[in-house]
């Protein structure tokens, strides 16, 4: 079938193209996309931090409505409302242990351009292969995905807000709830008050953390962090965050969550911890980090942990997050800014300059909640 998509090439970040999309085979689902979040991971492809085969259709925070299902699909049917998650194999040790985010095949399945069958459902009108991204390529009007990419959600929730639950919001909240696993009363610091960091902050509030400290360089984001539940905020341009965090907590923080990928920030996230504290990082950055293993980690028995997709299984965590959204515990509407699909370039500009915390592209302009 023919679809419209924003295709990315080495010469141009985004160009609207008519592409061919394969019909769903056994175990696959065709989704009519309503909206898609814009994520920092998409930007890391554009700046060549993460390589993918070109041409490619980016986007990996899709939400939409099931149009058609292939044989043997049992979890969804046409008409169901869904959020699209990342690709995982479901058969490696980590997947079988309940950590799809740690799938041993994460990189090839999400960045290799082809699905687990070694093909891409996307092609140009001239039958040139177009890489699929994260098993979904949601900057398009339709997507053919594996059943494992699809998470059914309640029909009474506005689909325009839900795409980021498939990556950014899942990553932030999952890192806190699944990876750090704070107990009520544990101190937690979030470095970077973007969509991922603020999602982690909201999860820390649900977990009963105290104090919850947000660190950023933008006062507007720190004000929003306070509105969402931060007990303290620190503008790291104006004061030393490590000194201030130790002043607030006494011994240092029990947990820190680093989202920026800036080496100096990662060091601060380590050095602000109390003895036996844990720092979780989800960041993608180009610059190397240099630290003294004994002084910065061993001496205080610290843990530095890398986390992918919040150590989450999308089918388990996304329905919980949607329930939090419905209950007002995850007020995502305070983070988002909507754009038309054709405004994708501006959405990335606004995300980079900080004027939009979580841009969302509206693909189906006729959709109403």
TrEMBL record:
PANTHER family the UniProt entry points to: GROES-LIKE ZINC-BINDING ALCOHOL DEHYDROGENASE FAMILY PROTEIN, NAD-DEPENDENT ALCOHOL DEHYDROGENASE
* Any one GO molecular function term: oxidoreductase activity
- Say which family it is in: Belongs to the zinc-containing alcohol dehydrogenase family.
Q: Does the keyword Oxidoreductase apply?
A: yes
Name of the protein this chain belongs to: Alcohol dehydrogenase
Q: What organism is this sequence from?
A: Bacillus thermotolerans (Quasibacillus thermotolerans)
Q: Which UniProt keywords apply?
A: Metal-binding, Oxidoreductase, Zinc
Q: Which cofactor does it need?
A: Zn(2+)
Q: Domain of life here?
A: Bacteria
Question: Boundaries of each Enoyl reductase (ER) domain copy?
Answer: 16-361
The answer to whether keyword Protease applies is no
């Amino acid at each position: 079938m023919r679809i419209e998509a924003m295709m990315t090439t080495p010469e141009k970040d985004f160009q609207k193209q008519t592409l061919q999309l394969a019909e769903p085979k056994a175990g696959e689902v065709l989704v009519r996309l309503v909206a898609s979040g814009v994520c920092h991971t998409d930007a890391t492809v554009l700046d060549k931090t993460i390589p993918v085969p070109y041409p490619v259709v980016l986007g990996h925070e899709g939400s939409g409505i099931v149009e058609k299902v292939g044989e043997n699909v049992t979890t969804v049917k046409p008409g169901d409302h869904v959020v699209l998650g990342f690709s995982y194999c479901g058969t490696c040790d980590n997947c079988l242990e309940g950590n799809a985010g740690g799938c041993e095949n994460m990189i090839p399945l999400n960045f290799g351009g082809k699905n687990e069958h070694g093909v891409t459902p996307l092609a140009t009108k001239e039958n040139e292969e177009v890489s699929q991204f994260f098993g979904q390529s949601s900057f398009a009007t339709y997507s053919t995905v594996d059943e494992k990419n699809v998470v059914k959600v309640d029909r009474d929730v506005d689909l325009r807000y839900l795409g980021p639950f498939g990556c950014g919001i899942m990553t932030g909240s999952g890192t806190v709830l699944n990876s750090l696993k704070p107990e009520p009363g544990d101190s937690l610091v979030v470095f970077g008050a973007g969509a991922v960091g603020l999602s982690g902050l909201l999860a820390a509030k649900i977990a009963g953390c105290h104090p919850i400290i947000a660190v950023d360089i933008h006062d507007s984001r720190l004000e929003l962090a306070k509105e969402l539940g931060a007990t303290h905020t620190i503008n790291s341009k104006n004061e030393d965050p490590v000194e201030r965090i130790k002043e607030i907590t006494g011994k240092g923080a029990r947990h820190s969550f680093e989202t920026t990928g800036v080496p100096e920030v990662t060091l601060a996230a380590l050095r602000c911890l109390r003895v036996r504290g844990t720092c979780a990082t989800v960041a993608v950055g180009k610059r190397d980090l240099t630290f003294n293993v004994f002084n910065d980690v061993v001496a205080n028995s610290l843990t530095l942990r890398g986390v992918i997709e919040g150590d989450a299984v999308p089918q388990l965590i996304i329905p919980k997050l949607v329930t939090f959204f419905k209950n007002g515990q995850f007020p995502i509407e305070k983070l988002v800014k909507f754009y038309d699909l054709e405004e994708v370039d501006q959405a990335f500009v606004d995300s980079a300059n900080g004027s939009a915390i979580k841009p969302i592209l509206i693909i189906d302009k006729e959709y109403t909640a």
